[in-house]
């Protein structure tokens, strides 16, 4: 019940219980006496002559039971309030409750200040009153306004940890002194700025040299701020759950969850870096990386939500406004960059970009012209370079960015990595296989430091069309076995040289590309072949005749795999059907002259470049030349092979410079293959070429290095 009171002289009430007095600040003082198990008497003194002072039974005004004394300079009004937010509270009666404050005495004192004493039950049973639990730690908040009549926005306010003590020994009062506001500011900076920037650079700037340091330092700083700032609040959190309002409890528990998660996130982050740099366990690394990513995004979302919730509880309109701005800005930036990622950075290769060529590389003019020979020379001097189509890319700082681990990067220095960028699994097996999606291409152009020109006269242009978008049509296909085919293509705009007039051309390949009816881009790489296999067989006397093909055709050999999108597409082409070629690409064999002792390992269709090498050596080697080639050819079975009769005949013809081992599951050499290779390596090896599936290439590379061959002498194709 609202009551108006004239000042009454203080009446000292004797009691066997102790009266506790607490100075809240220089303006407000509160005294209380726990009279018995039912009632508490409270005296509120405020140096206010026009305005009000109020006490709330929670740390903030959100869902808070309040009592307020409002003065117009002559009279004091005492009211039981319920605040749902930091806006003007309403009386319990208006909310549907009861007026549970019982006036005792007091009003305006002799100096014109508020001095009023009242009582209420510890537990009123009113849903709009909070229970006062004696000698149990909780919170209070307060606010006052001076020199302005009525219930208006406070001129000062605060909160404190507090105990409604029965004795002075149990008394406790610790004002926040802005600690909650400082905590809110710290957490907003941590999760509204540092975490956002840290995750942003990790997602969109992994091709840079600096992203990792920004990501690590910003996220680590945000984590430390969270742990330190939250700990400052938690260390005084001895409050029972019953004394904490639900919203504050949720906010606090979410903060505790974040404090735990940031520790786990830091552990995941360091483990991710460790596994990327020091191990080759792709599956464990992938699991940890995904856990790191999931926890990171969870923390960011929880952090932003909890910052918002904190400012709502705290009642700071500026904080709420800044968080709304942060939400909007973060969402807008992420959406803009995601759109940029899809439609601009990946635009030439992304399936959504329907009208743009799937093969064209955008290379800024600042990229200098380079050659494969020059780039490989730099690799041998320690530069961490690779090739992708017609680009030279520097991956020196990319080992921490590559999701498959730095070991994948280190094993590919000097290689053309285009063959891995086709969405196929390279490592990892059936559990979490490591694949490259089309999004991987966007990183490559950002890592580029140079561009390699197409070899002159390999492809002879008839028109002015560019070689990164050559349209060829199928002439015919010839089966080499049940699942391997030799395909001939021609173009109205380009012709391929009729013969290999430059040793540096051997082993180069073309990127072959088409778009499905759903505009999915399928791209694969195939070595081209100069020699006409049928003509070669005729020259060796294996065939009685051969059919000459027209000049200028591009020839590729491919094996059809069950479920293979490109090989089945090629196998289903009809004469006249068109497909896109780009090239020639890749470093090839990097052979300057037919001199030296070489090893070659061919797995499946990886035999193609060595057919050209053997044919050219046969036709061009002078007597007494010191060139020698040991060729290891691997097929599952002999029926899976092609051109094997030619190679066997060539070994008879070129016995002085050629040794061929054909390895199949049933061949006798398979059991002793390792010993044969080691024996062959006893003579100084000038170089080794390896061309086959990824696992095949890695196995023989590691084997040769383990047995003493310098890595710089090995070329993986």
TrEMBL record:
One of its GO terms (molecular function) is oxidoreductase activity. Residues 26-145 form the DOMON domain. FAD binds at residues 557, 559, 565-566. The keyword Mitochondrion does not apply. The chain crosses the membrane at residues 185-205, 212-234, 254-274, 294-314, 320-340. It comes from the Eukaryota. It holds the Pfam family FAD_binding_6. One of its GO terms (cellular component) is mitochondrion. It is found in: Membrane. PROSITE patterns: CYTOCHROME_B561, DOMON. SUPFAM superfamilies: CBD9-like, Cytochrome b5-like heme/steroid binding domain, Ferredoxin reductase-like, C-terminal NADP-linked domain, Riboflavin synthase domain-like. Its cofactor is FAD. Its main location: membrane. Keywords: Electron transport, FAD, Flavoprotein, Membrane, Oxidoreductase, Signal, Transmembrane, Transmembrane helix, Transport. Residues 1-21 form the signal peptide. PANTHER family: CYTOCHROME C MITOCHONDRIAL IMPORT FACTOR CYC2, NADH-CYTOCHROME B5 REDUCTASE. This is Cytochrome b5 heme-binding domain-containing protein. It comes from Stentor coeruleus.
